[in-house]
Specification:
The chain is an alpha+beta fold. The protein has helices at 16-19, 25-38, 82-92, 97-106, 155-158, 177-190, 235-245, 259-270, 284-288, 291-298; strands spanning 2-5, 11-14, 44-48, 54-57, 60-64, 70-71, 108-110, 116-126, 129-142, 159-160, 163-164, 167-171, 191-192, 197-198, 202-206, 214-215, 218-219, 227-231, 250-253, 274-280, 304-309, 316-321, 333-334. 37% of the residues are buried.
Amino acid sequence: MAQNVTRAGKSRTDFRDAIQPFLAPSLREKCATVLAGSVPGLEEIRIRCGRPLMAIGGNGDFFITPQGTISQSPAQAYLPDREDLDRSLQLLGQGSAYALEEQLRSGYITLPGGHRVGLCGKTLVESGRVMRLINISGLNYRLARAIKGLADPITRYIVVGGKPAHTLIVSPPRAGKTTLLRDLVRQFSVGIAELGFPGVKVGLVDERSEVAACYGGVPQMDVGFRTDVLDSCPKAEGILMLIRSMSPQVIATDELGGRKDIEAVEELISAGASLFTTAHGSDPEDLRGRPGLAALMEWKVFERYIFLGRSLGIGTVEKLTDRNLGSLINDKFVLRPRPGSGD
């Protein structure tokens, strides 16, 4: 990916080379300036049949016009048609009907570089299970960003007694929890020189392929050279597989919560591994409303809670607490890597 520079001197990512080959030719020029960085903090491009073409960034939603400019008015937006979606879908399948069939079962397609495309349409269900999607009516191009060093301001809180602490990252959507988890995995895998912390073996259960963003089984995001990844694997099964076969010192997974997940955590603790995981929510009360997480809180499993929000911008650490929910910081702050971190 090329890097452009804004007038403020801050780098912005140019996603044209990564995304345009997987868009219908009729959409490529319309999305070109958006992919090049005209929407600050671009996160998604939404293509819905017969409805306005949209871009979602750090400052909200925008509409993309037939001329490729952005507008605040849906009336000025380009309206993708069935041909736009069908041609894009063909390109996403890269000419392989079998590969596309497999991806239509999961509801998303992972692209080189770790970007992914969510799919919506009519579901075919057998015995209560979704078998595949047909009549695709919506595509969501979600752009992957790895921010190396994002966890720099908090790593010193995560090392307790020379070991990684069991840590739960809690946040609402689009507040940065997956990006933070990814950088924690990377840093604890490679080691943290400032803390005198050597790298440890990390097992990552990436059920939704969002943390390591594997493509063809290979992580597209830097998750550290001591990290083993189970891609598209259910969390509970993956945790047990890693314990039995990879002797991890840290196990990381995104969005813990089911009953089986909690049972697997008990095995993880018995094996002496540390847990890094996430959950949707905004405060402790949200967690107490879920039986599995409430039990882990009652047992005081998590030694550190990181509550993220957007009050000061994406990645605001609203609270950082110990296992008793006692605050470890005086004021909220926005996670930002130190200059040169991760180089």
